[in-house]
Amino acid sequence: MAPSRRSFIQFLAGGAGLLFLGWTALKALSARVFQAALPPRSVAPGNHRWVMVIDLAKCDGCKDCTKACNKMHFVPPFQEWIKVYEVSDNMAAGPYFLARPCMQCDNPPCVRGCPTGATFKRTDGIVIQDNDRCIGCRNCIAQCPYSARFFNWGEPKHTAEELAHPYSIEHNYPHRMGVVEKCIFCPDMLRAGKLPACAEACTMGAVYFGDELEDAVTNQKGETIQFSKVAKRGAAFRLLQELGTEPRVYYLPPAGRKYPAPDEKPHAMGSTA
Amino acid sequence: MTTERETILLRSLTETTWRFYLWAGMLLAAVAWGLYAYLHQLRNGLAVTGLRDQVSWGLYITNFVFFIGISHAGTLISAILRVTRTDWRRPITRMAEAITVFSLCIGAPMVIVDLGRPDRLLNLFRYGRLQSPILWDVLSVSTYLTGCVLYFYLPLIPDLGMLADHPDLPNWRKRLYRTFSLGWKGTQPQKYLLEKAISIMAVFIIPLAVSVHTVVSWIFAMTLRPGWDSSIFGPYFVVGAIFSGCASVILSMYILRRVFRLEDYLLPLHFRNLGLLLLTFALLYTYFNINEYLTVGYKFPGMHKTLLEELMFGEYALSFWGVQMMGVFCPIALMIAVLAFKRHQQFIIPGVAFASAAVVAGAWAKRYLIVIPTLSSPYLPTQGVPWEWSHYRPTWVEWSITLAAFAGFLLIYTLVSKLLPMVSIWETRDEEAADTEAPERWPAKWRPNPALGTALIVVFALFCGSLARAGETRAARKPKATVISLDWHAISPSQTPPASGGEHVMPTTTPRAYLMLDRVFGRVGPGISLHEEDRPLPSINATASLLEQGGAGLSFKVVDFSLKTSFGILALGSWPTLDDGKASVVIRDRRYGQYLLMASFRGDDEAQAARGEAMVDFGPRPPAALPEAGVLITPYLTAGIGLPFVLFYGTMWVVLVYAFGYLILWRMRRNG
Known about the structure:
- The complex is a heterodimer of chains A (about 270) and B (about 675).
- Chain A is α+β, with helices and mostly antiparallel strands and about 270 residues long.
- Chain A has 8 helices and 11 strands.
- Chain A has a 5-stranded mixed β-sheet with strand order 10-9-8-1-11. Chain A has a two-stranded antiparallel sheet with strand order 2-3.
- In chain A, strand 4 and strand 5 (about 125-130) form a beta hairpin.
- Chain A is elongated and about 95 Å long.
- Chain A starts with a helix and ends in a 21-residue tail after the last strand.
- Chain B has 20 helices and 7 strands.
- Chain B has a 5-stranded antiparallel β-sheet, with no helix packed on it. In chain B, strands 2-5 form a two-stranded antiparallel ribbon.
- The radius of gyration of chain B is 35 Å and the shape is elongated.
- At the A-B interface, helix 1, strand 2, helix 3, helix 4 and strand 6 of A face helix 5, helix 6, helix 15, helix 18 and strand 4 of B.
């Protein structure tokens, strides 16, 4: 039988009808299936958006922040959740110190890539790590452009003090083998109304910490500055922000430094780059 | 019943020499050694490997990508040749499909070996997030493995039926073949159903195979790392996979031909045709390589420059150029030499086989060069860690497990080639029978009833409609955002100045392309809306009245304003009082919530110090939500990312169930 025009039009109409039905079904199903509420663990206590401002002009590379963090979190050896780099932007520019905590990105690549939701974003902006759930695939390490994630390759050495605390994602110890570790902005300190360990330890007052919704950040000396103003007038920048990670850590440029530059310091770190 | 030719073919099943035992024993020893190494790793953690925080993926991921890669050609070649009804495929499809199945069986567990906590593997299913490329891999590789096992098994059924009657075999093997032949008697309806199932599988296995290696490449391409962050990675990996897979098929053809004396089946024609295919893919791969490196090398952007310098002139230069020479250029030259010139015709078989061996070895090394150099050139410099932590040197554990992976692959191949004929008997027999008779169409037992079909569609439509309406009503019940009103106490307000535009406006992110799906299917996810309404800046006009005891205002005094925040006191500045003793300050910050506002007068010789406090309300804080910028960080699956994967692989599973479950298990068995 030769195909008539009529039958071909019928054939096309049938196809269009099927597509429409499928479309409706998908729409209805997706409205049902895909939940629109946050799970309780993503909702942080209090309605905050934590933000950190690091004034590079004040950082003298003493690494007090790293030491305080390591002490407080019993950080395993060779991990530095907040790490002080010695960097320079170009050949002509002098070197400066750059403290790098976790950037707690608003569009965190690690959270995107985590297959089990072991690392997740909270409503207060913290990218937190649940080591009861981590399977150790290290996709987040590959994803993080800031090298801010670490892995417990072997069983970490424990201290009695560390083991005395039960595990909580808010302080992330006792540490365990085969899972990923990171800076989490000390949520247990924040709960107690205290600054994170690194900000509390920075005697130079270079590390400011606060709530973006309060529009104020405070450093160890109690100096409180208006976040939006200092970000605007101080030409704050975010590390590698061209990658679209939307970090929550802002840096003030290392202009007009008061301390000797890294290459002039007696205890300058050896650069192994 | 069996011809001379088939007797040779079946000799591999019936005869076993000491050489087989020696070979299998060696492989078994290598596998056992690898298992010991893995146990060692399980006990002591990944610390026994050369991996550290900087290079955190190494040989295991290299092996994973390599084995998934060589799994490609088998099924893909066999499926494409089947779909296009190419007759010379018949003797080679079986061994090609076998490579696919076995390399998947070895490749997939390599990821588990790489896990820090393999004991928590089930978390992938308990808490799996389909936003993660790792889950895409789990989904696609498991679908592909199932598909390939079935696609390997279906064309085996007639041979199994035949072998079940073979006189030279021990009884347990006959019983095994009988069970797995699913009652195959070779009747016309059975043949029709089998052919149908195989054709359906062949069509669907092609997009599935392409998707698998694309997804594997996305593990890398979905990161921000230089060298991986590349839009070409999907097709680059697919082409590389087919390239290496094609070479491994040729290599296995060459080896099986020598070992089992299959010269009657595997003719120079096969090596020539597959050699041409390999040459084509070698040229394609060269093209992709040029594309990949030239686009970066021309511009040398940022970190890509460091990586490319390391690869081409630095630490990896020797291996990089070595791999390009051994894996691509030399095989191309050799294949052109034997395939294009008539006088070199007698070298076709060894020439193509030798080129294939080089390609397979080069492919493995190339995977290594994809994984490691990128990880060893991070964005931030490597400082303050030991040399070994930033330079990857695989340890004996990793080499042992890698060796065991290869040995395991060969062992499975060897054992299966003793158990099953590696050349399809019934298909090559068909070939002899001039394959004139097309299988007759088997009369359908059940025809769709138009009335019933229409009724079903109507019921389904009604059901969908009701679902949709249910969804709408639920959406309507949600509370609407209200207008923010400013309010404060103690310090009397005058009026709110109009919020001036351009005051530190947060950058709005542009919606990503895949969000277009969400426009249609609903919102993206928890707490994330595409267009957050513009929140007016909360502004406050606070006035402090500095009054004398009697009530008259003190003029020209300095009043300091400050605000108590979570961690400290924010100074807002100092303002003088005017004639009426009032100092006012306009606070127009991005601040929400209630605060203690403090106005203080330090006092001078005319007046004493004074302090005033009041709670000010800057308006409600925005609701607790995940940041708008993070789209794929939602804790639950969203339509935009979930539906494409679920639909694609769901379709594949439906096809697998239909082709195998219905056509073969249900209908073919009953037609015996």
